[in-house]
Amino acid sequence: MAKYTDIRIDADDLAFSDVHAVLIHDRDVIVQDLRHALRASGLPTRLVGERDRERRQLVCQRIEALAEEDPRIVPGTVTMTRTSGGKFVLTGRTYEFGAITLEIY
Fold first, then answer.
1. For residues 54 and 39, what is the distance between their CA atoms, to the nearest angstrom?
2. What does each C-alpha distance from 3 to 10, 72, 82 come to in angstroms?
3. How far apart are CA 27 and CA 93, in angstroms?
4. What separation in angstroms does the CA of 94 have from each of 5, 10, 20?
5. Are 35 and 42 in contact, with CB atoms under 8 Å apart?
6. Quick one: which of 41, 27, 44 has its CA closest to 69?
7. Nearest CA to 60 among 99, 27, 93, 102?
8. What is the CA radius of gyration of the chain?
9. Rounded CA gap, 28 and 104, in Å?
């Protein structure tokens, strides 16, 4: 039985399968909550817009700290990396559901 359940949000709208809302559970709820918290903070936009390497690193640290404020996330496990394709990826570990990954742009 799922501990957390929510309605999946796709492209700023509720996700539906036929006439029913698509439900997500546990790890996916945590990832969706983090995505919403980050978006509300404005940090991902600042990250993408920042050209100075040191300032970009500071924004990455703020994103990591914001993610670690979630009580379901194990402190010290959140890291931001940049892929060879230029995308930023946030990874971490939850107490109950293992690893999480969130692509940021």
1. 22
2. 22, 12, 32
3. 10
4. 16, 23, 29
5. no
6. 41
7. 102
8. 15
9. 15
Six-digit token string for 2: 């799922």
Helices first, then strands: H and E counts in the chain: 3, 9
- DSSP three-state, residue 97: coil
Q: What is the pLDDT of residue 18?
A: 85
User: Nearest CA to 24 among 4, 54, 1, 49?
Assistant: 4
Token pair, residue 18, equals: 């036929």
Structure tokens that stand for 37 in this block: 């918290």
Convert the pLDDT of each residue in 16-70 to its tens digit: 888 899 999 999 999 999 999 999 999 999 998 889 999 999 999 999 999 999 9
Q: Count CB neighbours of 100 within 10 A.
A: 21
Q: In what order do the strands lie in the sheet with 79-82?
A: 79-82, 88-94, 98-104
In angstroms, the CA 3 to CA 24 distance is 11
The partner residues of 23 in beta bridges, in order of sequence, read: 7
